[in-house]
Amino acid sequence: MTERTLVLIKPDGVQRLLVGRILARFEERGLRMVGLKLASVDREFAERHYAVHRERPFFEGLVTFITSSPVVALVLEGPNAIAVVRAMVGATRPHEAAPGTIRGDLALDTGQNLVHASDGPETADFELGLWFAPGELFDYPRDADRWILGPER
Ligand code: IDP
Ligand code: MG
User: Fold this and answer.
1) Prediction pTM value
2) Which pairing describes strands 32-39 and 115-117: parallel, antiparallel, or unpaired?
3) CB 7 within 8 A of CB 85
């Protein structure tokens, strides 16, 4: 099933000069980029994005962190994109993230774990709508899809 999912390269990814390498992982996997931008997030927006965590003890720190520098927001599309991207990102706590995942290869701290990725279809819908206007998302054919998704696609 073709899905769309929201990914953020968080402030630590931008500040650590890892944007290109993180984007390359998703691009090489074959996922289609349908939206991409640099964005600066204010407190009110961050609180909406992380609303499900409002009652958590780490909420304040999380909001402060995500507003501390621009982030890269992207929308990726592909078969089972939500699960594929979550698997590529790895476990929330980097010491539990498998080698080969972004967090398992590049991060050590739970608060600074480089990436956000939607965790399910409803979250993805909500987050895409929050971060991107319809006109900022692009539908376009790629010749490589024949080789990435199979001859029927
Ligand atoms: P996820 O990013 O893997 O989906 P969530 O549980 O949705 O993880 O938490 C959102 C973000 O909040 C995490 O990526 C991490 O940056 C931060 N966070 C989660 N748990 C903790 C914690 O126990 N201490 C500090 N920060 C946390
Ligand atoms: Mg989450």
Assistant:
1) 0.97
2) unpaired
3) yes
Q: Give CA–CA dist 53/59, Å, rounded.
A: 6
Distance 69 CA to ligand 1 centre (A): 18
How far, in Å, is the centroid of ligand 2 from the Cα of 117?
7
Q: Give the chain's domains with CATH numbers.
A: 2-39+70-134 (3.30.70.141)
Question: In testing the pocket of ligand 1, which one of 86, 92, 109, 126 has its CB within 8 Å of the most ligand atoms?
Answer: 92
pLDDT in tens, 112-136: 999 999 999 999 999 999 999 999 9
Nearest ligand to the C-alpha atom of residue 85: 1
pLDDT, tens digit, 9 for 90 and up, residues 64-101:
999 999 999 999 999 999 999 999 999 999 999 999 99
